[in-house]
Design brief:
Layout lengths: L3 H7 L2 H134 L3 H146 L1 H4 L3 H147 L4 H119 L8 E7 L5 E7 L4 E5 L7
Antiparallel strand pairs: 1-2, 2-3
Length: 616
């Protein structure tokens, strides 16, 4: 009996009930842990599906960006084609200017040849007049020999008087016409000066308006450039806001996860407190029962042997239960280790997604830089168009100046031709008068030698000769005046030649402007070559980005395959508690085609394929 009492003190009914309660608590903990693991699995599957949808959306946005870049490259091609066409038009206008300059030079050379030809013809006419004078002297000598009679001489004198009166009248008429033409010429010169002054005023006003228009065009281009800069800055701020909103959404998702974990832990704490309260309540009951059992201990001593047998049975069952509990605890530890591994992989995937976002942000920054380069090229193209319009206006002004010079040359040539005709007529009349005076003087000398008895008539003839000499002096005075007029016209002719030389100098200035236009064209060609090189560089960068994008797609495919395999392994390890499992296979074909295959356990399959959206 002394050996029985310590065993009796070690194994009491209260301890047995406590052991039963602990076993029931372990069962409830196992059930609750299974529920939490199923909830975690469902939450992880939802998070993986959300991550895949977000990655697909970002990939599609990147493809849209690449298609927009290709469209902008096509617009650049069109703009360069327009620049080439405008360059061809400028070349054609340059050729037309060269043709007009050659025509002007040919006309000037032709005018010079005509002037030289007129001088040659004038010399030939002088020689012909001298020949005619010699012939006329011979004829007059023959006629003087035949004029031997006074009647013939009287008739000749009457005829000469009559002719002298006619010549005086004709000279008076020519002088009046000459004065009238001179007054008309002066009036035309005055009108021409007035017109030139008005033209200069109008030209000054037009140049002032052109300068104002150029200033306004420059201000307009500056405002356009500022507007494009503000638009680019607005786009950058909008993109930054979008990235900030995405980060805020990620932070909200993490906050929701932490709140969910907090609620779950609070629920577990409440359940633990409830279990503790139940355990304390049961412990109080057990203490009461123990007191009652102590009072009834003496009654139960008789049944001690049977209780010892039951104790042996219960100890065997307890050892079995302990072994089961150890096995379950080891399984739960393995499950926790796997869950930790999955959490580590999930964090690694999050970091990779963040790195992909950073790369996408870098790509967006590079795209904004490319758009700024395109805006600068458009601004340069707009400036080139403005300079081309200014050059067109300058060429138009130079054409107008050339036309004014042509009109002036024509007017001066016409006035020179008229003056030459008037001088030729005056010279011919002077020559005829001098020849007739010579004839009369010779006839007077012959009559004085041959007929001495006609001295009285000779005296009268001498008086008439004196009158004739006075008239000759008057005619000489008129001749000298005609010579002075001729010298004045020669001076005007020299001024005209100087203006022609000045126009030749202006043609040299035109050639200098043509050379400057050629230099501008060469600069435009160099700019075009630089733009072509920049475009090739942009194409190479685009190909590199496409290769990087395809590599990222392959990495995402491998990651999704690994995640799906791990998810299947985890679901198979958990016994297939999910009623329906979904696997996603993503294939990236060559050229940017993406195919998503969603395979479900119910037997349905969905395939989504996008065309080659990289190149529009």
């Amino acid at each position: 009996m002394t050996d029985m009492f310590p065993v009796e003190n070690d194994m009491t009914p209260e301890k047995l009930t406590v052991m039963k309660l602990k076993a029931s608590g372990l069962g409830r903990d196992i059930i609750s842990s299974r529920r939490t693991s199923s909830f975690l699995q469902s939450h992880r599957s939802k998070m993986s599906s959300e991550l895949t949808t977000q990655a697909d959306g970002k990939v599609f946005a990147l493809m849209d960006l690449i298609s927009n870049a290709s469209r902008e490259a096509a617009s650049l091609k069109e703009s360069w084609a327009r620049i080439l066409s405008e360059r061809d038009t400028l070349l054609r206008e340059r050729d037309e200017l060269m043709v007009t300059v050659e025509e002007v030079t040919e006309e000037i050379q032709r005018k010079e040849a005509e002037h030289s030809q007129h001088g040659h013809e004038h010399g030939e006419r002088k020689r012909q007049v001298e020949k005619l004078v010699l012939e006329l002297t011979a004829v007059v000598a023959q006629v003087s020999e035949h004029k031997k009679k006074l009647a013939d001489r009287d008739r000749a004198l009457e005829l000469t008087r009559h002719e002298l009166h006619e010549l005086q009248a004709s000279v008076a008429l020519t002088l009046g016409e000459h004065e009238r033409t001179r007054s008309e010429l002066e009036a035309t010169y005055a009108r021409l000066k007035v017109c030139e002054s008005e033209r200069d005023v109008a030209r000054h006003d037009s140049e002032k308006h052109h300068n104002e228009i150029r200033a306004l065009v420059r201000e307009h281009t500056e405002l356009k450039s500022k507007h494009s800069e503000t638009i680019s800055k607005f786009d950058l701020t909008r993109k930054e806001l979008i990235t900030i909103n995405e980060r805020i959404k990620l932070f909200e998702l993490e906050r929701d996860e932490h709140l969910h974990d907090k609620d779950r832990l609070n629920e577990e704490l409440k359940r633990a407190k409830f279990r503790i309260e139940e355990a304390t309540r049961e412990f109080t009951e057990l203490t009461e029962n123990h007191d009652r059992v102590q009072r009834e201990l003496h009654k139960l001593k008789e049944a001690l042997r049977s209780v010892e047998a039951e104790r042996d049975d219960f100890s065997f069952t307890i050892e079995n239960l302990r072994r089961d509990v150890k096995v379950k605890v080891a399984g739960w530890e393995e499950a926790d280790a796997r869950a930790n591994e999955y959490l580590l992989k999930h964090e690694h995937v999050k970091r990779e997604v963040v790195s992909v976002k950073e790369k996408l942000r870098e790509i967006e920054l590079e795209r904004t830089e490319l758009s700024s380069v395109i805006d600068r090229s458009r601004e340069e193209h707009r400036l080139i168009v403005i300079e081309r319009e200014q050059l067109k206006q300058d060429v138009h002004d130079e054409h107008r100046k050339v036309e004014d010079g042509r009109r002036r040359i024509n007017l001066l040539e016409e006035s020179l031709r008229r003056s030459e005709l008037a001088t030729a007529e005056i010279k011919s009349e002077i020559l005829t008068l001098t020849e007739r005076n010579r004839v009369l003087y010779r006839e007077g000398e012959d009559s004085r030698i041959k007929q001495g008895h006609l001295t009285t008539e000779i005296a009268s003839l001498q008086e008439q000769l004196a009158l004739f000499q006075t008239e000759i002096t008057n005619l000489k005075y008129d001749r000298d005046r005609a010579h002075s007029d001729l010298n004045a016209w020669k001076h005007k002719y020299e001024e005209i030649t100087e203006t022609v030389t000045s126009y030749e100098d202006s043609s040299a200035e035109f050639e200098f402007e043509i050379t400057s236009l050629r230099t501008l064209l060469s600069e435009a060609r160099e700019q075009k070559e630089r733009a072509i090189q920049a475009r090739h560089a942009a194409d190479r960068e685009r190909d590199e980005y496409i290769a990087k994008y395809e590599e990222k797609c392959r990495e995402m495919e491998r990651f999704e395959e690994n995640a799906s395999s791990m998810y299947h392994a985890h679901s198979n390890a958990n016994g297939g508690r999910m009623g329906k499992t979904t696997t996603t296979h993503t294939r990236v074909l060559s050229g940017g085609t993406t195919i998503h295959n969603h395979d479900a356990s119910t037997g349905h399959a969905h395939e989504h394929g996008e065309g080659n959206s990289l190149f529009g």
